[in-house]
Amino acid sequence: MSGAKSKSGGSPAIFIVFTAIMAALLVAGKYSLALIANVEVVTVFIIVFASAFGYMPTMIAVNVFCALDPIIYPKTMSFPSIIIGYFLYWNLLCLLSYLIHKSGVRSPLVYALFAFFMSFIFGALMAACQSIVAGVAFVPLYAAGILFDVIHMVSNFAIVLVLYKPLSVLLKKIAPQRL
User: Fold this and answer.
1) What is the average per-residue pLDDT within 42-63?
2) DSSP element (H, E) containing 105
3) Mean pLDDT lowest among 15-19, 34-38, 166-170, 171-175
4) Taking CA 34 as the corner, what is the angle to CA 30 and CA 39, rounded to the nearest 5 degrees?
5) Range 69-75 contact pairs with CB under 8 angstroms and sequence separation of 24 or more
């Protein structure tokens, strides 16, 4: 269909391509650092994608990432709480990142603090999902993972503080006006 436009006024083909690239980068980003416990670039990618491309394409990419995770890493399939937690958390991060950007915030420090806080939420949410699915008490489960949460919080703070600005500048240069 020649000349077709998406709801936002951009080309549907461009929308699909950018969304697929974002999903691929989320997957590749997760697995590129998989050997380092609780250190990841998915958070910074989602924050800058939501800022550069908007909520809808980023949310679709996030859901593709969440759906591919148990396929690529089959051990996840034995923990439905992880799958549930991923869909809840990464979509929440996407929405909040988009809303923060829309409010006019552009400070790497603010986004780093946001990533720090959201990493805490990630740990609590994953423990809550596991607690509900497995029928075990939340507090001991969460306490058992607190060291991993601290590593996740600190590493995300540092990663976002360092990468937010350069990635934002890069994506601003390559992002189409309307996606």
Assistant:
1) 97
2) none
3) 171-175
4) 80
5) 69/27, 69/30, 72/27, 72/31
Q: Is the separation of the CB atoms in 43 and 50 below 8 Å?
A: no
User: Of 63, 113, 53, whose CA–CA distance to 90 is shortest?
Assistant: 63
158's CB contacts (< 8 A; 6+ apart) are 112
Instruction: Say if residues 49 and 102 touch (Cβ distance below 8 Å).
Output: no
Side chain identity at 50, as an amino acid letter?
A: A
* pLDDT tens figures, 78-136: 789 999 999 999 999 999 999 999 999 999 999 999 999 999 999 999 999 999 999 99
Residue 128 near residue 135, CB atoms below 8 Å: no
103 vs 155: CA distance, rounded Å:
25
CB atoms within 10 A of CB 80: 14
pTM over 0.85: yes
Angstrom CA distances, 78 to 71, 74, 123, 148, stand at 12, 8, 19, 21
